[in-house]
Amino acid sequence: xxxxxxxxxxxxxxxxxxxSVLPMKERAAFIDKVTELRVKTLxxxxxxxxxxxxxxxxxxxxxxxxILKTFLPATWLSARRTTIxxxxxxxxxxxxxxAIAPYSIGTVFKKAxxxxxxxxxxxxxxxxxxxxxxxxxxxxxxKIWAHxxxxxxxxxxxxxxxxxxxxxxxxxxxxxxxVAWLExxxxxxxxxxxxxxxxxxxxxxEGFSSKVIxxxxxxxxxxxxxxxxxxxxxxxxxxxxxSVSIQRADKTTFDHETSFSEGDEQIIQAGDLxxxxxxxxxxxxxxxxxxxxxxxKENETQAPEYLINALKRGNQLQDIFTSHFAIGKTGNxxxxxxRAEAIAKGLKPTIYTHPIGYHGHAAGTTLGMWDSQQGVAGxxxxxxxxxxxxxxxxxxxxxxxxxxxxxRIMLEEDAFxxxxxxxYLDGRQTELLLIK
Length: 436
Fold this sequence. Notes:
CATH topology of the largest domain: Creatine Amidinohydrolase
Strand content: 15-25%
Shape: elongated
Largest sheet: 6 strands, mixed
CATH architecture of the largest domain: Alpha-Beta Complex
Strand order of the largest sheet: 4-3-2-1-5-6
């Protein structure tokens, strides 16, 4: 009976409470509090740093500017009708957050449109601009970052039609401010980001276990959909469809593109090296993780030494790469320096690290792409800033003699860059997960 109880307990899925996943109401309270703190403590310094007097965002319902969505209350899942947000530096050096919208927008924004007094929403915006007399008006337009290019043509034309001529030459791109807003994190977010990554790690560990995988029966597609179902059971969301792939002692050669797609369905067998790419969205923050697991053969208690050593080489590449992070360096500079050192030390690196935060592939410094190892124009030329988060994503090729072929150790772990350097939000994989 005791054995039956223990086996039943082991088979039970991890509960949301065990993972410290907040109830929905508490999540909403956290999101709204963080938004308020960011507007009060972060936004004024960013607007001053980039010499922007007024930041203007315009969105219509269901066609939201990606950045505007980061300001909406947690209970708002989209804009309503035409929603106009205005951030204006006042004489005290603080930011006034105002809304020209048909409804009140939470507690962060002061309602600045009385439809009874001024039926025309665009004229109400012009009257507000006249009050502040800004030297410039920043709009979300960008050739490099889609996240910062959220102003659609129709709204831009409507704005230009409403503005007096004296303001037309004051319209500028908000790109540097927009990217800074998206990439900068405040302490309260970092504390919760650690928990989000820990939750993602726990889900991966659960998926890569005999609780979920029956060797010789479970397929890669089964496991992929288990991750999707598990996330929903925990009242969480994924921001991309997970992928599960296998490297094993056969004649199949590595292909980067198919490793991150559903590809051919394969049955998981003993001796397989499994790989997962998995991410969740929690409290408007995104995680992105890639880890490996080994399926033990009969009488094995650990992975073969050649796979253990391969993982160590992947960790070595991580260390080389993150050691080159420095404020002011561009992504392309870090990429070039890291690859040169790694190759000199006998590694075969491919580096494709990206910012992470409000978006999975977020705005900020890009450090390589898997098919652009000589640098990335535009966002790769953008310099590193402190208090920013990255998915340290890369792979190292290793020849496995018993398999008579080259494999890839593909790793991705979420990390934070501050004055102390780069550190992982919930550690990183240094040992293969083992499946009995």
